[in-house]
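Notes from the 1:1 (GR / supervisor)

We went over the backlog. Supervisor wanted to see one worked example end to end before approving the batch request, so GR pasted a single chain during the call. The sequence is below; no edits were made to it. Supervisor asked that the structure be written out right there so they could see what the output format looks like.
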Amino acid sequence: MSLRASSEPLDAVYDVALLDLDGVVYIGGTAISGAPEALHKAGAAGMRLAYVTNNAFRTPAAVAALLTSLGVPAAAQDVVTSAQAAARLLAERLPAGAPVLVVGGSGLRMALRERGLRPVSTAADKPLAVVEGYAPGVDYSMLAEGGLAVAAGALFVASNGDLTIPGRRGITPGNGSLIQVIATATGVQPVVAGKPEPPLHHESVLRTNAKHPLVVGDRLDTDIEGAHRAGADSLLVLTGVTSPVGAVLAPPSQRPTYLAEDLTGLLEPHPQPEKDGAGTDGGYQCGGWTARRDGDRLELDGQGERIDGLRALCAAAWAGDAIGEDAARAAVERLEHK
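Structure output shown during the call:
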């Protein structure tokens, strides 16, 4: 898969943007520079905005309130969480009113109640399932109760499997790290509802009635891979977890349809790197840059916008066998210093 061209701005091509939050709209509760303005413009152009998050801690109303406080247009019905996807998954497998032990916060409990399930807190309540999602208050006692219930035969569901989450102070452990406590103790791996697994994308499409959605994210292993699994197009932005080097190294299942520095990429046409020459060592041109492979190396010449140079590098790297990390890093360093 290679980057695709769009002669029109993306907000005119797709009916709904399925936007990740952490690393795309905000980081640690602070809006990413330019994000609110870009989203207002995309909405004004007719693109509907849905905020799709693997974070199961906050309720949709709380997420919408945070977004509104940051100047981002949002209402509770615009927010889709992994808690909601996990609750739908459980409701499809359990009888109405079934007890479900919650290792997590209020977002999970509310989502379960909306699906007619009964949140409980201890293994003594004989839950038919355990659902785990990140919350700052998750502690040993909650994990222990969850482990006891899973060991007794309860279905184990996780809201998401993100190993890390971005924060103001850096990258911190996510729910994917927490679920390993119960998984290690019981030998049972959970069914995962969040990205990149299909349930959250399915939930998002159902709630938005999207016909031609665009997945927007900062993570290759969740947002972009999830789009691949769902057969949806995707936009990778470089404001969160994935670095330019990471984009160059992306494996086929994690390569985005489009690439942008930030959410202003929704408002712009997107060029496709054009092949210059034959064979896998032929160059790829984009916006004044030319990138080509020289054996295991990537060469870059030209000048212009950084994102166009990165598009050219991705096209060259993706055209053949995998490029090594050292080669990718060296090429990106040349781009940064042009």
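Supervisor's comment: The radius of gyration is 21 Å.
Batch request approved.
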